[in-house]
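Retro notes (design track)

What went well: tokenization of the new backbones is finally stable.
What didn't: we kept losing track of which sequence belonged to which structure.
Fix going forward: every design gets posted as structure first, then sequence, in one message. First example under the new rule, 197 residues:
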């Protein structure tokens, strides 16, 4: 079976799917129709999706889709660096710069699931050094920061716009929720996956 490259598409989602397919082919991996559809759904939704949301969307297209099928596709896409697993909101989002610079920070809106991918190696090194001073070692290459996106900040009543805890944002690697950790965190601007691409 030969894999000939698809002609480039003009829409952003189509172009990103073509890049993903080319990356997989270059690595000797196959972006099957199911894997491609899961990635397409994440790209088209423009925000993070929980597993049951993905399964429902898959069943609209493939009525027989079962949870193991979706989870296997998600595992493959994560292994290939095409999506991110977001512990902060227990969901997945498409990587909008697959094959490009690695993302050190994922800024996750805890209200709507929007994600900004940020690459700031200097900040990541500084964070790793500070963590090392505590005797801990970072065990993930990406740090999630819980925040409120601009749209969700505008929806909040005046006086509830930000909720800083001692001026420090909270980064989580373990997926545990902190009830008090619902505030906005200042972060460097990055790629927004909450809008059209």
């Amino acid at each position: 079976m030969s894999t000939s490259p698809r002609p480039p598409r003009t829409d952003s989602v189509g172009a990103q799917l073509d890049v993903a397919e080319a990356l997989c082919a270059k690595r000797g991996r196959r972006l099957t129709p199911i894997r491609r559809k899961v990635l397409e759904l994440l790209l088209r939704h423009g925000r993070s999706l929980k597993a049951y949301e993905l399964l429902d969307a898959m069943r609209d297209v493939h009525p027989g889709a079962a949870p193991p099928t979706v989870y296997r596709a998600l595992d493959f896409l994560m292994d290939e660096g095409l999506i991110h697993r977001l512990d902060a909101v227990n969901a997945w989002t498409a990587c909008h710069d697959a094959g490009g610079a690695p993302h050190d920070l994922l800024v996750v809106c805890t209200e709507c699931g929007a994600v900004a991918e940020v690459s700031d190696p200097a900040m990541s090194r500084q964070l790793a050094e500070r963590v090392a001073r505590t005797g801990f070692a970072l065990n993930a290459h990406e740090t999630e920061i819980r925040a409120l996106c601009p749209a969700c900040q505008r929806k909040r009543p005046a006086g509830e716009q930000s909720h800083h805890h001692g001026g420090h944002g909270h980064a989580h690697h373990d997926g545990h929720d902190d009830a008090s950790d619902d505030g906005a965190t200042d972060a460097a601007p990055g790629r927004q996956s909450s809008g059209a691409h």
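Added context from the reviewer: Residues 12-26 form the longest helix (15 residues).
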